[in-house]
Amino acid sequence: MRSAPYDLSPGSAWADALFASALQRSDDPSAAQVRLAIAAVTGTLGSAGCAARVAQEYGDHHELAAARMRWARTAVAGAFGGSSGSCPAPGIRASRPRSPRNRSAAAYV
Fold first, then answer.
1. If DSSP codes are grouped into helix, strand and coil, which group holds residue 33?
2. DSSP string spanning 40-66?
3. In the chain, where are the structural domains located?
4. What's the whole-model pTM score?
5. Handedness of CA 64, 79, 10, 7 (dihedral sign)
6. Fewest C-beta in 10 Å: which of 53, 87, 98, 101?
7. What angle do CA 27, 28, 32 make, to 5 degrees?
8. pLDDT tens, 26-47?
9. C-alpha dihedral sign at 82, 87, 88, 94
């Protein structure tokens, strides 16, 4: 059986983290609450742990997991100004390959 490709973009990792968090759609969370929930669960589980939690839920309750992931992706996009990959959540570092000549002195601290 072939596995589906996994999206490794920051927005996808943030959606996994929100999915794995205790935050609920019915809480009608603000953008700040979404960002804090993502930072908290990422700090606790790490991105691999979040992805594992998503996989477990899809295996156990696929019909509910799909709806929760749709909400998580929409909430992440809203929390980051419409583009879930545009800026990192507090405490989460987005990494991008950079050439050494484009790095500031602060990057080496």
1. helix
2. HHHHHHHHHHHHHHHHHHHHH-HHHHH
3. 10-91
4. 0.68
5. positive
6. 101
7. 100
8. 999 999 999 999 999 999 999 9
9. positive
